[in-house]
TrEMBL record:
One of the Pfam families matching this protein, by short name: MarR_2
Sorted UniProt keywords: DNA-binding, Plasmid, Transcription, Transcription regulation
Keyword Nucleus: no
Full protein name: HTH marR-type domain-containing protein
InterPro entries: HTH_MarR-typ (IPR000835), MarR/SlyA-like (IPR039422), WH-like_DNA-bd_sf (IPR036388), WH_DNA-bd_sf (IPR036390)
Organism lineage: Bacteria, Pseudomonadati, Pseudomonadota, Alphaproteobacteria, Sphingomonadales
Species of the source: Novosphingobium resinovorum
GO biological process, alphabetically ordered: response to stress
GO molecular function: DNA binding; DNA-binding transcription factor activity
Stretches assigned to the HTH marR-type domain: 33-165
Length: 183
């Protein structure tokens, strides 16, 4: 299902030329908004690189630590729900869970209410690995954020929360689960 945003190419072009053509939601300084979007993307990408490096000695991939992170918050998710939350296909999450189950970090159990469904749970080894990952990530995050004052962080978090809320509104019902991620 394609999500349609309220802006079209003409509205963006009109905004760039200073025209108001009846579209009040077009920002006056589109360059600043685009730059902000690129910064969010770049910071996220570079943060993943730094965290991946910190977790490499643990022998865990980013996909695996994301599975563990989601299960640590909502243990017993169905494979379908986990795939949706991670934006992966059922086949991709199936292979990933197979490997993690083989490593002893997760286990599949039959759903008590629906015999067709299987739920995924962290094992003791998985819980221990989550704790180890959290320690490593906490240290990396502290280092990354050491250059940011508390007031700056609060302000930036407020802005990002507003942007996230608006994105959820624009996405609509397709945003199922998007609000579940803690900040």
């Amino acid at each position: 299902m394609e999500t349609r945003l309220p802006l079209d190419a003409r509205a963006i072009a009109d905004s760039a030329e200073g025209s108001t053509s009846g579209v009040s939601s077009v920002p006056k300084n589109l360059d600043s908004n685009l730059r902000f979007g690129f910064l969010i993307h770049d910071v996220s990408r570079m943060r993943r690189i730094v965290v991946d490096r910190a977790l490499k000695p643990l022998g865990i991939t980013r996909s695996q630590w994301w599975v563990l992170a989601f299960l640590s918050r909502r243990d017993g998710m169905t494979q379908t729900a986990l795939a949706a939350d991670l934006d992966l296909t059922k086949v991709a999450i199936g292979g990933l869970v197979d490997r993690m189950e083989g490593g002893g970090f997760v286990e599949r159990r039959a759903d008590e209410r629906d015999a067709r469904a299987r739920r995924i749970y962290l094992t003791k080894a998985g819980q221990k690995l989550v704790a180890t990952i959290r320690e490593a990530v906490d240290a990396v995050e502290a280092d990354i954020m050491s250059v940011v004052e508390d007031e700056e962080l609060e302000g930036a978090s407020g802005v990002l929360l507003k942007v996230k809320t608006r994105l959820i509104e624009l996405i609509g019902s397709d945003a199922e689960g998007a609000g579940d991620i803690e900040m």
